[in-house]
Design a protein that fits this description.
alpha/beta; Rossmann fold; 7-stranded mixed β-sheet; 159 residues; single chain; 28% helix
Length: 159
């Protein structure tokens, strides 16, 4: 686990940029955090780091899925308005098994569709300008990608 305390938006941008370099085709990123914790903002910076257009990134609360063209296509999925039993009605498996990167807000609702291999980013609202972030890896591929990356993020942790 890698932890960042009291990150402002500039620092969140740097974290997302470094984090993007760990991702590969088929990566799944599960975003945890309360309303207003910065999940969509993190996604905006992640898309920018993947050479996508950050201006296109918006909360998919009503559309459920937004797709962004980048070096690797990004599927931004928001399950906030979906009940867990409704997830099976979505083409969620197609997104999870695609060559794109799936970024999922409110992943608690995935239930049986939760993959075995994923990155978990937990965002905690501190105040209007600051967030705490934690990055975990679950599963063999993601753990291998994140392993020994503490020094990779060290310069950000120190600022």
């Amino acid at each position: 686990m890698i932890t960042f305390k009291k990150a402002d938006e500039k620092k969140v941008s740097k974290i997302a940029q470094k984090f993007a370099s760990l991702l590969y085709k088929g990566s799944v990123v599960l975003l945890f955090g309360d309303l207003g914790s910065g999940k969509t903002t993190f996604t905006r910076h992640l898309v920018a780091a993947l050479d996508g257009n950050p201006r296109q990134v918006g909360s998919p609360t009503f559309t459920i899925v937004n797709e962004y063209n980048a070096k690797i296509k990004v599927y931004h999925i928001d399950l906030f308005r979906i009940e867990e039993e409704e997830v099976m009605e979505l083409p969620i498996e197609e997104y999870l098994e695609s060559d794109g990167i799936c970024v999922i807000e409110w992943p608690e609702k995935l239930g049986m569709y939760t993959p075995n291999d994923f990155f978990k980013v937990k965002l905690e609202f501190l105040d209007e300008l600051h967030r705490n972030l934690e990055i975990f890896a679950q599963g063999e591929d993601c753990a291998r990608s994140l392993k020994n990356r503490g020094e990779f993020f060290a310069e950000i942790q120190e600022t």
